[in-house]
Fold this sequence. Notes:
Radius of gyration: 19 Å
Oligomer: single chain
Distance between the termini: 59 Å
Order of helices and strands: HEEHHEHEHEEEHEHEEHEE
CATH superfamily: Metallo-dependent phosphatases
Number of helices: 8
Number of domains: 1
Number of strands: 12
CATH architecture: 4-Layer Sandwich
Low-confidence stretches: none
Helix content: 10-25%
Mean pLDDT: 92
Strand order of the largest sheet: 1-12-2-3-4-5
Strand content: 15-25%
Largest sheet: 6 strands, mixed
CATH topology: Purple Acid Phosphatase, chain A, domain 2
Amino acid sequence: MLWWLSLPVAVLVWATLIERNWFAIRRDELRVLPKGSKDIIVLHISDIHLAPWQRRKIGWIKQLARKTKPDLVINTGDNLGHPKAVSKVLDALNNLSGVPGVYVNGSNDLYAPAIRNPIGYLFGTTKTVEPRHQEKLDIASLTEGFEGFGWLSLNNNSTTLRINGQQINFIGTDDFHENRHDFKTLKATAENLKTADLTIGVTHAPYREVLTELDSLGAEIIFAGHTHGGQVCLPFTGSALVTNCDLPTRYARGLHQTEKELVGVKTWLQVCAGVGTSIFAPVRLACRPEVRVLTLRAKD
C-alpha cells in the first residue's frame, strides 16, 4: 500500500528535479543541398525560458558551441523566463557569438511569465487575439545582444546568408500565438529575395496557418519551437498530450515531413522541444529538455 502512495511522489521528484535538468542534444540529418555541397551544421535553440538562478542550464548552454560546432544558429524564441534574465541569456549564448544566426521572438521574449491553470493547455489551441501578459520585458536589450552576436531578426522579415558556399534564403514571422505575425509585410520582403540554394522558414509557434504561409513563400524546411514537445508526455512512449497550438501531437517535437492534408503540401518541419519551462510549471516528464542539431547534406 505504501508503495503505491510513494509512486506519484517519485514521479513528481523525477519530473521536477531530475528530468527537467537532464539536457539533451538531438541530432538529425537531411539531404536538401545541391550535389557536391559542403555540409551545414544547424544548431536549433528554442524555449530556454531562463531565470537568473538557473546556473546548471546556463553552464550547459555555454558548452553548445564546443559540443556542436555549428555553421548556423537558428533561435526560435522564448529565451527569457524572468524579467531580470536578459544579461544571463546573452552570457549563456555568448560562445556562439560570431556564428551566423537568425532569430524570431516568442511571447516570453516580450512579456514576463504568469501563473496559468495547467488544465487550460489541454484545450487552449487557438492563438491569442490580444496579449494576455502584463509585465513587459527588455526586448530591446535582448535584440541588441543578438545583433551583437551577428544574428539577424526574422520577425516578419526575410534575409539571405551565405553559409559554407551555399546561398540560403530565410523567411520568418513574429509570434503567431500572440497575434504578432504580419504576413503582408513578410511577403513584401520575401519578394526581394533572389534565387537561392535553399529557403528556410522560421517561426516560434507552428500553427498550420503559419506553416502554410511559409511554404507558399518557398520554405523547404521550417524551424519552430513553442510546443515544449508536449512537456508532460506519456511514459515509455513519449507521446505528447498537447502542443499548445493546432499542430497534431505527433509533430510535437523532432524532424518530420508534414502530410499534405496538414498544410496543403509536404514540407519538412523541425520542432524543438526546448531547453526550459515556465518558472511556474517546472516539470518535464518523458520529454527531456533539448536543443536540436540538423546537419544539412548534399542530395544523392
